[in-house]
Specification:
The protein is mainly beta. The protein has one domain: Beta Barrel (Porin), CATH 2.40.160. It has helices at about 190-195, 245-250, and strands spanning about 50-60, 70-80, 85, 90-95, 100-110, 130-140, 145-155, 160-170, 170-175, 175-185, 215-230, 235-245, 260-270.
């Protein structure tokens, strides 16, 4: 296994994916660690600069009345020195020294439930978008890249918080990247109830009882690959799975035990 980490640890870039799109559901894949294995060569599977392209997404809908999500989305990603833009989220590195880095984090979480577009949701309040901000850290070891991050709603939508604990195990072979990852997402009761199956008293009916998820802990795993076709073109594929906390699985409006997503992308390195 070869883990390529910039010696000075002063380069922070971003790889394409996660475009900002008004969709009902989104694949939750942690990609921030890819900057730690980036190299500037023309054959690197993780380049720096501007990437333009598109992504196809196939996954499982969260709520029982929703169809299986299938999207083909154009997008743009910027790979910077300290600033990283991933479509619906961004980070800025505040501190880097040795094998440790500290960054600020921001994200737009889109709404995922609307009774006006899905008649089965009649009586449920619309789950709107929110802006989240937080702080995170990366730690590099010879065999793994660790991430810890906490973020909170700053727009007053859900008034909830989320903590990510994650480990990536990257393998780089010339033009090819193969990176399994695993971790967990810890969500506060307010965020989990708002976006992951809560039903308040005013939304309850005879067939849809009131339901409180409480705080949740969801294990997650992913497999990300990237291939540098030539100097300009990059292909990627990924698969991810989040196992819902038991309280989310038992929600009267949630239809699966978790969310499985597969993604395929093609980007042009500008």
């Amino acid at each position: 296994m070869i883990i390529r980490v910039p010696h000075s640890f002063c380069m922070s870039i971003l790889v394409f994916f996660f475009v900002f799109s008004a969709t009902q559901a989104k694949a939750e894949i942690e990609l921030g660690s890819l900057n730690l294995i980036a190299t500037p060569s023309d054959s690197s599977p993780i380049p720096r600069g501007l990437l333009l392209g598109g992504i196809g997404i196939l996954g499982q809908a969260r709520y029982s009345a929703q169809d299986r999500p299938q999207y083909l989305i154009p997008g743009m990603v910027y790979l910077g020195e300290d600033f990283m833009y991933l479509g619906d989220r961004a980070r800025y590195y505040l501190y880097k020294e040795g094998n440790f880095a500290l960054y600020g984090f921001g994200r737009v979480r889109l709404g995922n439930l609307d009774a006006e577009t899905t008649p089965e949701f009649k009586g449920l309040q619309k789950r709107k978008w929110e802006l989240e901000a937080g702080i995170g850290a990366n730690w590099i070891t010879p065999y793994a890249l660790f991430t810890a991050r906490i973020a909170s709603d700053i727009t007053g939508t859900s008034q909830g918080q989320e903590i990510l604990l994650w480990a990536d195990f990257p393998i780089v072979r010339e033009r090819f990247l193969f990176m399994p990852g695993l971790g967990m997402m810890i969500r506060s009761s307010k965020l989990a109830n708002y976006y992951f199956g809560g039903v308040n008293n005013s939304e309850a009916t005879s067939s849809r009882p009131a339901y409180d998820t409480g705080h949740t802990v969801s294990p997650m795993a992913s497999l990300i690959s990237s291939y540098r076709i030539n100097k300009n073109w990059i292909a990627m594929a990924a698969i991810s799975y989040e196992q819902y906390d038991q309280s989310v699985r038992h929600s009267p409006i949630v239809q699966h035990r978790g969310e499985l997503y597969s993604l395929f992308g093609l980007g042009y390195h500008w």
